[in-house]
Amino acid sequence: MASHIIDALVKLPFADKAYDIATEFMTEHRGWFVIIFVLPFSLLFDIFFQIRAAIVMRFYSAPELHNERVKNIQNQIKAHLESGSTKRLCTARGGWQSISPGNRDYKTSGASHQISVNLYDILTLDEENMTVRVEPMVNMGQLSHYLTPLGYTIPVLPEMDDLTVGGLMMGVGIECSSHKYGLFNDTVVELELVLSDGSCVSCSKTKNRELFDACPWSYGTLGMLTAVTIKVMKSKPFVRLEYFPCYDKKKGAALFQKHSEEQMADFVESLAYSQHEQVVMTGTYVDASEVVYAEKNSIGLWYKPWFFKHVQSKLLANKDEGSTVEYIPLRDYFHRHTKAIFWELEQIIPVGNHPVFRFLLGWAVPPKVSFLKLTQTQKIKELYETQHVIQDMLVPMSKLGEALDVFKKQYDLYPLWICPYKAYDYTDAEAPHRCFLRKPEGTKKPFLEGEKLRSEMYVDIGAYGIPQAVLDKKPFDAVATGRKVEEYVAKVKGFQMLYADSYMTKDEFRSMFDHVHYDKMKSKYDARGAFPEVYAKVCKKGQALWGKGGEKVAEEGKKKK
Ligand SMILES: Cc1cc2nc3c(=O)[nH]c(=O)nc-3n(C[C@H](O)[C@H](O)[C@H](O)COP(=O)(O)OP(=O)(O)OC[C@H]3O[C@@H](n4cnc5c(N)ncnc54)[C@H](O)[C@@H]3O)c2cc1C
Ligand SMILES: *[C@@H]1O[C@H](CO)[C@@H](O)[C@H](O)[C@H]1NC(C)=O
Ligand SMILES: *[C@@H]1O[C@H](CO)[C@@H](O)[C@H](O)[C@H]1NC(C)=O
């Protein structure tokens, strides 16, 4: 819609000149543009959605409307089937609306047939079975606003307010509670999908299990997700957060590994500020009665410093390696990285963490990532693709130290986000397949006493920002460095998260990710190839193919088998 308005404006007489002036302003003075235009729009949008969500929750019986909305999606898919169109299906949600950085050319190039999936509501909270059933466009902010006051949370609640259940389920979702609960999909008990023949099915560990197992990492290529049932657990109103500043890379990595594997803390996270300096953090749920009020810190308040700056201050203040403790309200903790979009906002609004800005306008940030993407000029898009890195890589925990060195060598950018992930092995006689994530080599025995499942600990390293080479005005080749990091990750049997830019070839991609079960499910549930293959959606090289007839990609996949 907004992009149509922009397109229409561009076609007006004198628009060329005005457009040049406008884009120059938007590029050169990005920070001011964001403050003056993007922030107010973001706020209005949020207010609109909050009011809408409140009204829907209060006055409408959401489940009944849900079935109608699902019918509508079924009808759209049946119409596509009957039309005989060879265009592949994807959601009509604009590429700019997604938090993921890629621009998704297939959404605008006319290569795809788009299905509108307007599913924004929380459906039912089942306190007996401890689950919440939601529609896929429900986002993390909406869910934590709803569950926290009731004393509940979902076990893996990724940090940014705008991340959606659908994206986290069909893509990937990780949080610093993932050392206990695994990925977002590990906490999901049931899915409802509309398949390419227009039928609506639900699947779980006990029903249509083969389909259920194939959904994580499938990136919307098996069907349209229409509802997700997620486990909920009791939460407490505060988190006791302990900060451990580390000044030696070996000690830092060892401390992080120890806390992740012991599982004494509910949350384990680390931020690295240089090759040697990092702050390891462990968090545990506490009740209000346990809070030491002198150490309470409501980090979510509008005038509070950005969280990554706050954490860095522990490093500067505490050269003696002693730990410090703070008590943080739960929602403030969950969304600690929302306000500064991890640390991406620093480049967009450089004055954003200045005390004066925070006191006057701190309540208005962050701008919505979707509006930031929508208002990117071509030049900014190019800068993001060539001079900026957004990557998350999962590597076995034992490789943490080595991987940090590789990141230093290739990207040299800080802070880095470090987050644990415990990969449980759910395979059994009935479902011996692993899907997408290969069976880790180290899974010989359960991790902790009394645990039934075998598992292996991984760690996610996230690099978001501008590499040092670019800051130093030296040459930086995003593709070449990206490929070097991918090569390393493949070598240590790790995985690249697919929301970001991936430069792998199809063969590399298929050797990093196990396609055996996926391919089977793809031919069983999407025999007519209405959806593309994962590779065609997420990898740069695959996306290029899509524009010139996505058919080819699927054909190649079939030949391989
Ligand atoms: C600044 C930033 C911070 C981030 N922080 C985190 C973080 O803390 N933790 C984390 O885990 N990840 C994080 N991510 C990455 C994030 O996990 C991915 O972007 C994720 O896929 C969710 O994004 P989204 O909700 O925008 O989904 P999208 O990117 O829009 O969707 C991801 C995939 O899911 C599919 N999909 C979505 N809805 C449906 C549906 N209804 N039916 C079928 N398929 C569907 C889409 O086709 C798409 O391929 C971050 C990314 C950025 C840029
Ligand atoms: C809990 O789950 C059981 C079994 O799936 C179901 O029969 C029951 O209705 C559920 N409880 C509620 C309150 O929905
Ligand atoms: C979640 O996804 C991962 C990766 O595909 C998979 O190994 C795991 O078994 C899934 N969890 C559940 C509960 O199905």
Give the integer mean of the pLDDT values.
87
Task: List the ligand species.
Answer: flavin-adenine dinucleotide, 2-acetamido-2-deoxy-beta-D-glucopyranose
Instruction: Tally the beta strands.
Output: 17
Question: Over the alpha carbons, how many angstroms does the gyration radius reach?
Answer: 23 Å
Pfam families: FAD_binding_4
EC number: 1.3.1.72
Subcellular location: Membrane
Protein name: Delta(24)-sterol reductase
In short:
This protein has 561 residues and is α+β, with helices and mostly antiparallel strands.
Keywords:
41% helix, 5-stranded antiparallel β-sheet, single chain, alpha+beta, 561 residues, binds 2-acetamido-2-deoxy-beta-D-glucopyranose, binds flavin-adenine dinucleotide, 8-stranded antiparallel β-sheet
Report on the architecture of this protein.
The chain crosses the membrane at residues 31-49. It comes from Tetraparma gracilis. It is found in: Membrane. The protein has 24 helices and 17 strands. It is an alpha+beta fold and 561 residues long. The strands form four sheets. It has an eight-stranded antiparallel β-sheet with strand order 13-10-12-11-15-16-14-17, with helices on both faces. It has a five-stranded antiparallel β-sheet with strand order 3-4-8-6-7. It has a two-stranded parallel sheet with strand order 1-2. It is globular. The model is unreliable at 547-554 (pLDDT under 50). The structure holds flavin-adenine dinucleotide and 2-acetamido-2-deoxy-beta-D-glucopyranose (2 copies). One 2-acetamido-2-deoxy-beta-D-glucopyranose binds at residues 126, 128-129.
